[in-house]
Amino acid sequence: MPRMTFIERDGRRREVDAPLGLSVLEIAHKHGVDIEGACEGSLACSTCHVIVDPSWFTKLAAPTEDEEDMLDLAFDLQETSRLGCQLIMTEALDGLVVKLPAGTRNAGG
């Protein structure tokens, strides 16, 4: 099974099983990682914002226009920011590393 690493807000690294076909948001929730995902992956908020390790960023599919619009609302936006609900685990992403931002901003409510 693929694995991925979350770098938590306090800097701790947590390597977890990352089942194929699940989003980074779903994987986080499965392992108790502190990502909100207020809209449950419907692209209506930015609370699942993650910062992708630069070595992995170019391996990801480009974000959709809808994802980019939501990212504009994210707190602590970085050059390699993505929404966890839009990153789907594949064999090619085995080893993916993402960092949790300093905080979140829920523009929807």
From TrEMBL:
The keyword DNA-binding does not apply. Belongs to the adrenodoxin/putidaredoxin family. Its cofactor is [2Fe-2S] cluster. This is Ferredoxin family 2Fe-2S iron-sulfur cluster binding protein. It holds the Pfam family Fer2. InterPro entries: 2Fe-2S_ferredoxin-like_sf, 2Fe-2S_ferredoxin-type, Adrenodoxin-like, Adrenodoxin_Fe-S_BS, Beta-grasp_dom_sf. The keyword Iron applies. It comes from Paracraurococcus lichenis. Keywords: 2Fe-2S, Iron, Iron-sulfur, Metal-binding. Residues 2-104 form the 2Fe-2S ferredoxin-type domain. CDD domains: fer2.
